[in-house]
Write a structure and sequence with these properties.
By secondary structure, the protein is mostly helical. The protein contains six helices and no strands.
Length: 144
């Protein structure tokens, strides 16, 4: 799946570069653009007298291909993300099911799971005093 997504992404990039070049070569209504930089009749010299219709048609097909590839890639990436999530969820469920089995095998009821400690920054926070001891109102004040 990764290979297909990579190849389609490469094709999408190539089509986008082609579209950029097609738009730059086309002559706009004001007779400006990249075609004018190389001479007034650059597109006519390259593609013939009816180049406007040919370039317009190729641009339309390129735009359609770009949109279809973008939609296809978004669907494939969504499918890949869901499959990855399913694998992770299954692994978590397997570990949760295996934890009681480990407890029964040791005979003491203790599970040999490594403990996770909070960072020192979070463990050294001051504890708030009860509202009745300080005389402060029970509702916290909003921050300015």
């Amino acid at each position: 799946m990764d290979l297909i997504i990579g190849l389609l992404t490469l094709l999408l990039v190539l089509i986008s570069i082609l579209l950029i070049l097609l738009v730059l070569v086309q002559l706009p209504k004001k007779e400006a653009g990249l075609g004018m930089a190389f001479g007034a009749s650059t597109t006519e010299a390259l593609f013939g007298a009816g180049s406007g219709t040919v370039l317009t048609r190729v641009t339309k097909y390129g735009t359609g291909a770009f949109l279809i590839l973008a939609l296809l890639l978004s669907i494939l990436r969504n499918h890949q993300a869901r499959a990855t999530t399913r694998v992770i969820r299954q692994e978590i469920e397997n570990r949760v099911v295996a934890a009681p089995a480990m407890r029964g095998a040791s005979g003491t009821g203790a599970v040999s799971v490594p403990s996770i400690q909070a960072p020192a920054v979070l463990t050294n926070l001051p504890t708030p005093a009860p509202a009745a001891a300080t005389g402060a109102p029970a509702v916290p004040k909003p921050a300015p």
